[in-house]
Amino acid sequence: MAAMTLPGLALGGFALFVAALLLVGAAAVARPRFAALGALPLCAAGALLALAYLIGGAHPAAIAVPIGPPGVAMTLAIDGLSGFFLLLLLLAGAAASATALDDHQGEYAATAPFFPVFLGAMALTLLAADAFALVIGFELMSLASFALVLTHHRDEAVRTAALLYIGMAAIGAACLIPALALIAQAAPDLRFATLRAHPPEGWRAVAVLALVLVGAGSKAGLAPLHVWLPPAHSAAPGHVSALMSGAMTKVALYVLIRVLFDLCGPAQPMWWGLPLVLLGAAGAVLGGLRANMEGDIKAVLACSTVENIGLIAIGLGLALAARAVDLGQLAALAMAGALLHAMAHGMFKPLLFLCAGATQHGAGTRRLDRLGGLIHRMPVTTACVLVGGACLAGLPPSSGFAGEWTLFQAVLGAPRIGGIFLQTVISVTALLMALAVALAAAATVRLIGVAFLGRPRSPRAAAAVEAGLPARAGMIGLAAVSGLIGLFPGAVLALAGPAQHLLVGAAMEGRAGGLVIAPQADAPGYAAPAIAALLGLCGVLVAMAVRRYALANGAAGHRRGPAWDGGFGAAPAWLPFGDPLTQYGGASFAQPLRRSLGTTLLAARESVFMPEPGDTRPARLEVALHDPADTHLFQPAARARDALSGLADRMQFLTIRRTLSLMFIALVLFLAVVAAMEQM
Amino acid sequence: MEPRITYGAFAYDVAHLLGGGVLALSFVLLYQRRVTAVINTYAMQAVVLAMAAAWQGLVQGAPHLYVTALIALAAKGIAIPLALHRIVRRLDIHRSVETALGIFPSMALGVALVALSILVVLPTTMESQALTREDLALALSVVLLGLLMMITRRTALTQVVGFMSLENGLILAAVGVAGMPLVVELSVAVLVMIAFIVFGVFFFRIRERFDSLDVSHLDRVGGAHR
Q1: Cβ–Cβ below 8 Å for B119 and A675
Q2: Greatest CA separation for chain A
Q3: Residue A280, class by beta-carbon neighbours within 10 Å (0-12 exposed, 13-18 middle, 19+ buried)?
């Protein structure tokens, strides 16, 4: 009996959770501190509920809520897929709320009410079981996050970023709503249960695919619609960008999965997976490369989000293609990789963004070339960054490695799906994935090496202070969850099992145990705990060997020597931390990649400004980068828009005869069309 | 209603001839350069229209069409052309020559428009009587030619003539369809009268201001330039 009522109980609990979050938002209008204080216990309890629901078997349940357009009830439902993403959202939400408890003397007060609303809207999107509720949740999420991005609205750059963000959200809405309308065209009502029974066919299905890729993909950061991520994530406060990057992009992916896998039905052609694979591969490489070039730590993390979303999109595309040709095992593997990496990224990226927020507050800046040496002043933050960085770089036994390994196994098995054309595409995709992961590792080394190791590059960085207790609690919590996911990816895949059965009809049975995950049931696999133990043993052995060697050479304990100064001599007395210019900076670390890959992919240009002799200005190296999505998509679109509005503007100033001629031509054209249609 | 007029019958031929006459006069209007000739052609078109309406009244046995014919003859065949001539003399432009479209382009455009209206009307009205269909095609051609005249002419006066010729096309369509009540034709006629009065006042105002009826002068003062 208890097993029967658990799904209903969980769904009722989540519905109350959404309502409670909206109430907390209302209460936070009067007392801003209520926002984080209310959201934290709600998210923690919700995460436990989601975990219990998934462990309890994730049986679907649905309720009708009498809210919505007249005469139509809003339907909420929970199943394995929404439960999995709810768990992700609420874990990240709990950590972000904990960090937001420390609001730095009312820094977040102006937009505090939107924080619980943002969380509630994301949960509503995940719980929605009709098109209307889905759109309401999705757009409320966009609006609330837009307000949160505007928290530091006095800054011009923040306002520009927020404008770009809301513009992309509007484009997304203008595509998502028609997509859902196209699906609902043949169905009598908007409930998902009805839509599933009437999947779109022919050109409508193709239009749905394109519109959903733009509508949900723009929010998820799928290339080439990723341009808003770096500025918007940099502009938002740390706990907000943690949620936007970790949870909101996953909610958008959830919408993508829900529509393409669930609502459009399994009878779609094999090539449906190709756009996701190609866009994902492009985004992975582009994001990974840009992550090496950005000078702002949050922009680095945002670009790496683009890279990770690309990797997940590759997995989703392969699952879609494999399902279409009835390769259930392969589809399950690809889906497992996508869901596992989504969960891993949903934990380690908020962790890194919380660390970036702590760095901004503790060291006063997010600029790589003004940070450095934070490991001494912010040890807890740096430890958390190291955990997150290991995941970001895909080092075993981190959660990022587990996800990327599973995705790679799926890609390596994918050539079975189709003919030579698809095999070529998949080989290239595998290459690009490997490149992207390597680029992400380089970006991580640069991020940690420049910002947290070395010597401080500014007095403010030298005087950095450790994050407060709430922020440390949030970071440590996420680091612990990331570590657990890395050590026990099989457990996460077990939680994702119901979702996989729902989407591709098969899960990782016999392939994902507590200790080992494997691409085939009887093949060797990846045993994370064993790898961790082996690596730990190696580390201990190396440490012991070094110690023995040092002792054998007569050195007692350890001693500090002068830091290597890039070949320069000792720094003058007025630079107690050494000359910051003599150590590697963010731009110099990126130079090899910028020159080799950046010139072709990002149109990177360097120019040296050398003042005349006698001029007191310093010499400068200027670097200009252009994202190809910006140069080849958005700028032409903006020019076309300006040209069109110019033309439309000219229509207002036509002479009488021209106005009459316009009407005459329109009439003649109309008659010609009528005549042509009659001839057919 | 059984068809009273069939293809090849005398009644049909005369109706067709008169409708064709209205259309032919529309073509003539297109390339007339002298203002007085334009007005005279318009008057002739109105007279032919009145004859077409009267003939329709005869063959359909609908006495109200005689009223339509009378209005067309009295108002558009006599009163309006006389008033236009008077305006032309008062404005002293009766000798002026106006560059319209050349003969060949206007003919070519006109023929294309007639072909278009036949292509549109004949298939859509498959179920109607043959006369109604052909009449509608002719009427639509007259309307389109009137519009073409409005946009190819430069002065306000000839544009108004184009407008009224367009309205002749509407009346032609109305009388061709059996059972069209008189009130429709009456209201269209009243509309044209009002429009004519408004335009008449308008002509003098334009003239007072610019010493010309060329509407391109209006563009300069109408806020039409940035």
Answers
A1: yes
A2: 101
A3: buried
- Extract the runs of DSSP E, i.e. beta strands, from A138-217: none
Tell me phi and psi for residue A620, to 5 degrees: -135, 145
**Pick from B120, B151, B215: which is nearest to A661 by CB?**
B151
Which residues, in sequence order, are bridge partners of residue A61? A78
Lowest pLDDT segment from A81-90, A180-189, A305-314, A474-483: A180-189
Confidence of residue A1 (pLDDT cuts 50, 70, 90): very low
Q: Supply the DSSP symbol for B97.
A: B
C-alpha to C-alpha distance for A249 and A271, rounded to whole angstroms: 24
- Residue A268's nearest CA partner among A195, A344, A324 is A324
Q: Where is average pLDDT lowest: A435-439, A509-513, B78-82?
A: A509-513
Task: Give B105's pLDDT tier (boundaries 50, 70, 90).
Answer: confident
> Which DSSP state fits B153?
-
- Give the pLDDT confidence of A167-200 residue by residue, as tens digits: 999 999 999 999 999 999 888 888 999 999 999 8
A372 phi-psi bin (left φ>0, alpha ψ -120 to 50, beta other): left
CA gap A126, A85 in Å, rounded: 7
Residues A660, B215: C-beta atoms closer than 8 Å: no
Is residue A560 less than 8 Å (CB to CB) from chain B? no
Shortest CB distance from A664 goes to which of B120, B123, B147?
B147
In whole angstroms, what is the distance from residue A523 CA to residue A483 CA? 25
Contacts of A672 in chain B (CB under 8 A): 116
CB B70 within 8 A of CB B100: no
CB of B122 within 8 A of CB of B2? no
Q: Which of A651, A654, A655, A673 is the best residue to mutate to test the B interface, defined by the most B CB atoms within 10 Å of its own CB?
A: A655
Confirm if A511 and A525 have CB atoms less than 8 A apart: yes
CB atoms within 10 A of CB A506: 19
DSSP three-state, residue A130: strand
One-letter amino acid at A276 equals: L
B175: tokens are 């009388």
- What is chain A's length? 680
Helix A656-679 and helix B103-124, axial crossing angle in degrees, nearest 10:
40
**Burial (0-12, 13-18, 19+ Cβ within 10 Å), B183:** exposed
Chosen for mutation from B124, B159, B219, B220 (greatest number of chain A CBs closer than 10 Å) is B219
User: Tokens for A608?
Assistant: 């040296």
pLDDT value for A539 = 95
SS3 B100: coil
Q: Which of A655, A660, A671 sits opposite B116 (nearest CB)?
A: A671
Distance from CA of B117 to the nearest CA of A (A): 8
A110 burial level (CB within 10 Å; 0-12, 13-18, 19+):
middle
Largest CA distance in chain B: 61
Residues of chain A positioned with their CB less than 8 A from the CB of B154: 657
Q: Please, which residues bridge with residue A541 across strands?
A: none
Which among B124, B216, B224 has CB closest to A678? B124
Q: Taking 80 as the threshold, does the pLDDT of residue A407 lie above it?
A: yes
By the CB < 8 Å criterion, does B111 face chain A? Answer: no
Instruction: Say whether the peptide bond before residue A396 is cis (omega within 30 degrees of 0).
Output: no
Residues of chain A found within 8 Å of residue B163, distances taken between Cβ atoms: none
User: What one-letter code names the amino acid at A294?
Assistant: E
pLDDT, mean of residues A300-315 = 96
pLDDT tens for residues B59-83? 888 888 888 888 888 888 898 889 8
A642 Cα to chain B: minimum distance (Å):
18
Phi, psi of A274 (to 5 degrees): -60, -50
Q: Can you read off the two tokens belonging to residue A561? A: 């020597």
| Integer angstrom CA distances of residue A372 from A2, A211, A247, A382, A442 | 55, 44, 29, 11, 17
